[in-house]
Amino acid sequence: MVPRVVFGRGSFNQLSEILSLKRLNRNAPFIYLIDDVFKNNSWISSRISLSYDDEIIYVSTKDEPKTGQVDKLVEGIILKYKERPSGIIGIGGGSILDLAKAVSIMLTNKGESKEYQGWDLVKNSAIYHVGIPTISGTGAEVSRTAILTGPELKLGINSDYTPFDQVILDPELTKDVDKDQWFYTGMDCYIHCIESLNGTYLNEFSKTYGEKAFDLCKEIFLSDDLSSEESQDKLMMASWHGGMSIAYSQVGVAHALSYGLSYLLGVKHGIGNCLVFDHLEEYYPEGVAIFKEMKLKHNIQLPTGICANLTDREFDIMIGVALSLKPLWENALGKNWEKITSPEKLKALYKKI
Ligand code: NAD
Ligand code: ZN
Q1: Structural domains in the chain?
Q2: What is the tens place of the pLDDT at every residue in 277-286?
Q3: Helices 269-277 and 253-265, interaxial angle, to 10°?
Q4: Which of 9, 65, 161, 293 has its CA 20 to 30 A from that of 151?
Q5: Ligand 1 pocket check for 195: Cβ under 6 Å
């Protein structure tokens, strides 16, 4: 679990004070990885106080994080500074948060980041890392994974060293998120809850968090009574609880298929989940019915024909990625999942997208 967290509108202003206690020495900088959507936005940068060799690196999130991108960032940092940084601070959505987690791990672990995609492969503690989400839904701020696309797989670095040492939850940072993106990333949280609450891995720990996040999502996406500030506050906490719920269970069918779409076509996580989930009545009937209600209420038009022109080989690649995620299928369908699902069934689902 994340050991330290502050919450509140304006809590981003506490960052300098929090970091001042963690500086190792003058030669050990703090490196800020920030979504480049904030590059010309002094509202964020003016509130960061840089000292000594501290550096801001703006990162594009056009594509989701890749293992090669992590390795390049780590190499750049090692070559540039005499000492290991005092810390890595990620400011952005799930893409930046995962990047920050992975970079902090790879600064203390040998080799390439692709070698650590999987479960519990990391040997040494990461350097101090702080996560500051600017869009709510993925739960990346609280999870024990840093999801990366590598040469062979889209798979997380899942380890006890992955979670942030400190998180700052300031819902005000999410105020300028575009409406469609708000919905897609918010639905990531909603789908985490549905997959966790309907999974065979469910336990009281996951259920407690999942039910709270599920109720918050229904309130945020279906009620007319919330102010935009209340909605931002609630979605940030829904994301946290949704992440906590899957931390001790698993996601399911929507995520498995969404990973296939993302690996082959670069479809981003939030929208990919929505594209898949829209067709999963067979697996999650009630969850999909509520999802369709939310989509209608916010007038969200999902793109169509994404898989229309794919070759058989391309379908096979996506199906291969989806089926390789065994824990997700076992959570969704039980120990006999291989008897319940089949490549043909997955192909039929992909063809609807
Ligand atoms: P994202 O980080 O890619 O951001 C989506 C878009 O929103 C980007 O264009 C970004 O520039 C913009 N944005 C972010 N904050 C903004 C703000 N305050 N104002 C205006 N625009 C803003 O999207 P995401 O949905 O948060 O994250 C997706 C990534 O998270 C994927 O790589 C996925 O694999 C990963 N993920 C990780 C976990 C985990 O537990 N580690 C869980 C789910 C998803
Ligand atoms: Zn997700």
Answers
A1: 4-174 (3.40.50.1970), 179-351 (1.20.1090.10)
A2: 999 999 999 9
A3: 130
A4: 161
A5: no
